[in-house]
Design a protein that fits this description.
Largest sheet: 7 strands, mixed
Distance between the termini: 42 Å
Bound molecules: ligand LIBGGCMN
Shape: globular
Strand content: 15-25%
Order of helices and strands: EEEHEEHHEEHEEHHEHEHHHH
Structural class: alpha/beta
Number of strands: 11
Radius of gyration: 19 Å
CATH class: Alpha Beta
CATH architecture: Alpha-Beta Complex
CATH topology: 2-enoyl-CoA Hydratase, Chain A, domain 1
Strand order of the largest sheet: 1-2-3-4-6-8-11
Helix content: 40-55%
CATH superfamily: 2-enoyl-CoA Hydratase, Chain A, domain 1
Number of domains: 1
Length: 291
């Protein structure tokens, strides 16, 4: 039941309307504006924020969407009532199609650099979130979608979808920090095979290699995430957070030290003729799939 104030633009709802019956004590605030590609609802009773991506047709991550994601993550991190964040999708059958390939094909260089910087920032925030993060993967999750999922603390996925870092299938290379996150998640052997082959794992295969943690029917993905959150909430927050920080800090610091260098690599690599040709062909193949 939503009884909060819906704010427009970037404003956060500042107050909650409460009625006197217990059922109304849950104060759920929608903290993104209508028409936003993100729907962020914070339930102050449970301390769980649900961030739902809603950018048709496939939740592809372009500069504007990444900027919105950064703002939403910051809101959650700064909201003292939020103990946990669930990331999911409102688009049927798609969690996220990953990076918006049109950002990388025949790009404007300033925008391309900004795009990459914003992606780096989003990942640094998400991977380092203090609160518990759960990916409720209710659709396909290739490449950048897989990065977002792997950056959460726990992954619950519906059957019959695919997830993985499939960059090589596009003729491009997953950056070192994408690879590092996969390495941290499934180990070296699975990562070296998956990255070279650009494997998109089916849900069950992903479970078998530890890329995801649980499979539940489509309609139960969100409720299973809410339930899983309770297990994490039982652990003293400070001890859990510190354990996470200790484990993830070296990976984050590696990128922090090389941020500008990484932007330069990306720009120089993506603008190569051969890479542009591969991306153009891949885009074309996506468009022709339905013909
Ligand atoms: C050595 C130094 C290295 C330094 C770094 C260098 C390199 C950079 C690496 C960059 C890392 C890249 C990460 C990525 O995330 S790349 C994106 C990878 N994503 C994909 O391959 C997914 C492609 N999409 C699909 O497989 C499917 O669309 C689907 C997600 C399974 C959904 O299928 P379906 O429901 O059948 O939808 P359609 O295929 O019909 O798609 C609908 C329209 O959306 C367009 N589309 C799809 N994905 C993307 C995308 N990622 N970006 C932009 N546009 C996308 C698709 O073309 C359709 O458009 P249309 O309606 O105009 O035809």
């Amino acid at each position: 039941m939503r009884i909060g104030i819906v704010t427009s633009g970037l404003g956060i709802a500042r107050q909650c309307l409460r009625k006197n019956t217990s059922v109304y004590r849950t104060c759920r605030r929608q903290v993104t504006g209508s028409g936003s590609p993100l729907d962020l609802n914070v339930d102050s009773k449970t301390g769980i924020a649900v961030l739902s991506m809603n950018k048709p047709p496939v939740n592809s991550l372009n500069l504007e969407f990444l900027t919105e994601l950064n703002i939403a993550l910051e809101k959650v991190e700064n909201d003292k009532q939020c103990k946990g964040l669930i990331i999911t999708s409102s688009i049927p059958k798609i969690f996220s199609a990953g990076l918006d390939i049109t950002e990388m094909y025949q790009p404007d260089i300033d925008r391309l650099e900004e795009f990459w910087r914003t992606l780096q920032d989003m990942w640094i925030k998400l991977y380092g979130m203090n609160c518990v993060t759960i990916a409720a993967i209710n659709g396909h999750s290739p490449a950048g979608g897989c990065l977002m999922s792997m950056s959460c603390d726990y992954r619950i996925m519906a059957p019959n979808y695919t997830i993985g870092l499939n960059e090589t299938q596009l003729g491009i290379v997953a950056p070192f920090w994408f690879a590092d996150v996969m390495l941290n998640t499934v180990g070296f052997r699975q990562t070296e095979m998956a990255l070279q082959l650009g494997t998109l794992f089916k849900t069950e295969e992903a479970l078998n290699i530890g890329l995801i943690d649980k499979v539940v029917p489509q309609e139960e993905v969100l409720s299973a995430a809410q339930q899983e959150m309770q297990r994490w909430f039982k652990i003293p927050g400070f001890a859990r957070q510190l354990s996470k920080t200790e484990l993830r800090r070296p990976t984050i610091e590696k990128l922090l030290k090389k941020k500008e260098e990484d932007i330069g690599y990306f720009r120089d690599y993506i603008t190569k003729d051969a890479i542009q040709k591969s991306l153009g062909m891949y885009l074309e193949s996506l468009k022709n799939r339905r013909k």
